[in-house]
Amino acid sequence: MHYFLPFFRWCDSTWLGETIRSSRIYxxxxxxxxxxxxxxxFGAVIVLNLRLCRIIxxxxxxxQVAQDLSPWALWSLVVILTSGIMLFLSEAMKCYxxxxxxxxxxxxxxxxxxxxxxxxxxxxxxxxxxRLSGILVGxxxxxxxxxxxxxxxxxxxx
Amino acid sequence: MSDVPxxxxxxxNSDIGTGIRxxxxxxPIVETTHVLALALSVGILIWFDLRLMGWGMKHQPVSHVHKxxxxxxxxxxxxxxxxxxxxxxxxxxxxxxxxxxxxxxxxLVLAGVNAGIFELATKKxxxxxxxxxxxxxxxRMAGLISIISWAAVIIAGRATAYNLx
Lengths: 158, 165
Hints:
The complex is a heterodimer of chains A (158) and B (165).
Chain A: H1 5-12, H2 15-22, H3 26-52, H4 62-90, H5 92-96, H6 99-123, H7 131-157
Chain B: H1 6-13, H2 15-22, H3 26-52, H4 62-90, H5 92-97, H6 99-120, H7 126-129, H8 137-162
Helix pairs in contact in B: 2-4, 3-4, 3-8, 6-8
């Protein structure tokens, strides 16, 4: 981990990080945007993965459900990442020492990679995925995002 | 903190209230459950609201979206409500005195009344809406009021936790 220390120090000392730290209300306001966008993304993730597991919307092709959800999900992801980076800059040294933050980052990168590779491949073809592979991909994707959420909440508490 | 009603004072100092508040694990666990249930309730409800407004999930018939996703959202609401009551119990005095918490309850009532009117009256003709790409004005209004009031609930809830202003 100590290889990253200079990077975290630099993040902590950026103008943006210092500005957010300088006021009591910037952090909560940015965090609220983070949470609002997260609600939209997690909702989309749950709906799409329940469809993959064939629990809801069985009458609609997976591809169509994915296409209906994706523009909103993508924009909410942009808001989440932007606000998340701002929050991180304002307390980078706290994050450096935080176990939940490390857990969150591992889950986040895994979730993003999984989402844009395997998950996307399964949801972007007009072929209905097999029952077992649908359940597997849907469950893994949902659990990865759950890990991101749990890790994130942990940063505030631990 | 003497200017609170007896029941608020009693809740704050009851075994349940004190137990949750002073436990290292209990409060974070209940709080985390509350926030995760948010994705399951509002996060899913919002997709129905967007569909009502004709802004999202346009390929799915309105009645179909309602039938498929609202039961899941309902489960989320039950979890969120129970965990929310426990959180309130543990910080009853702080919440009672917080202007943000009062605003949150107000918007919760607004969201509830809006949903009640929709489920009991507006929804009666939902099958007819499937024929058109965009539902009638009263349905679109219900979706808009729902999104605005739930966003306000989340914002006020976050502000309560931070004890801002």
